[in-house]
Amino acid sequence: MLGGVDNGLFFKSFAGFAVILVFIVLLRWTFSRGHSLVPSPSKRGKVDQYGLLRPVASPSNFIEGEMLRQKLLAVGIKANLTQTLEGPRLMVFEQDLKTARAILDS
Length: 106
What we know:
- With about 110 residues, the chain is an alpha+beta fold.
- About 45% of the residues lie in helices and about 15% in strands.
- The protein has a domain at about 45-105: Alpha-Beta Plaits.
- It has helices at about 5-30, 60-75, 95-105, and strands at about 55, 80-85, 85-95.
- It has a 3-stranded antiparallel sheet.
- About 10% of the residues are buried.
């Protein structure tokens, strides 16, 4: 006994407060806004809004675009097929632009 108080009961009461405090922290983290781990859906943009990527081809549909992308990937050129406001575009980095055009024209 510590000062007339049962030590076991005294420490159990603080353990209950600690558990509630942990629940409060977890619930605040869980339901906070603006810090989602789920990515937001991508937005369509103009052809010039894709940073370092430049359009190399304008396929009529995604199947044709994927075939062209696979052709570039087979020779080692990284390519992205994206949906822009003007339709699907095959995009490559600027340093690969001339090589990609030559490969797609052949």
